[in-house]
From TrEMBL:
MF terms (GO), sorted A to Z: lyase activity
Predominant cellular place of this UniProt entry's protein: cytoplasm
Native species: Kriegella aquimaris
Gene3D superfamilies reported in the protein's UniProt record: Aldolase class I
Name under which the protein is recorded: N-acetylneuraminate lyase
Amino acid sequence: MQKINGLLAATFTPFYKDGSLNLSVIPAYAKKLKEDNVTGAFICGTTGEGMFLSLEERKLLTETWIKEQTDDFNIIVHVGTTSVLQSNDLAKHAQQTGASAISAMGPVFLPPSKTSDLVDFCASVANGAPDLPFYYYHIPTISHVNLPMTEFLQASKQKIPNLAGIKFTHRSMMEMIQCLRMDDGKWDILHGFDEELLMGLAAGAEGAVGSTYNYLAPLYNKIIKAFRAGNLQEARELQYKSINFVEILIKYGGGVAGGKPIMKFMGIDCGPLRTPAHNISEDETANYLNELRKLDFFGLD
């Protein structure tokens, strides 16, 4: 399986004000990502509020994004749910629709406490799309599944034939490096913390998935270019700019709640977050915009 190289945007799901899907936004959304040299889109994940969507909505969203897929812009579909049967169904749909790959986090309800149980769950999900690469989505802060990923890879070899690697959104760089080095570097380990992209690159990751790549991809592509050219001081300075931004982003709700207002600022209105997620107020949004202006990232006036 070919490894992913570059940035994958963890996309937002566009909603109308009444909370229904707004699929009309996606062509312009995809166009912007392609113009920013983003490798592809990771849809229906955490940033995409995937767990808030019905199965039918997730399928409609997948079908709409797949229309924007090209040879150099891939669509990875997060198919994880609390039900292995529903996840398998979403995996089948992703393969039938023509997705590039699928992914699933561990089930958030009664999260497995044994690696073998997680492997069995993922095997049943991945079996729905045997022709597509499967990435386990390791994000313990959301899923509350915090099992050793080295054990997961070792135990999955025989049970998940289409396993490609891990979307690694966890703070343990030690564990990430161990996964990158396993089996002579066979596994595709995608780095998941935007504000630490440089550390992921230094560890050996070739691809990364993140929410801020939706609107700051040019900055992160400069980090990648500087790192690969050996210009470490430049890469560090650029990463520090990202950190300054993320500090403000966290102040205004983090990657999901704080990200949608930025998309609107940039002309891609993804609407509100779906309940029970918290939308920041108009006053907070105004203050947020003022702080973003000072960074001079977005061409805001």
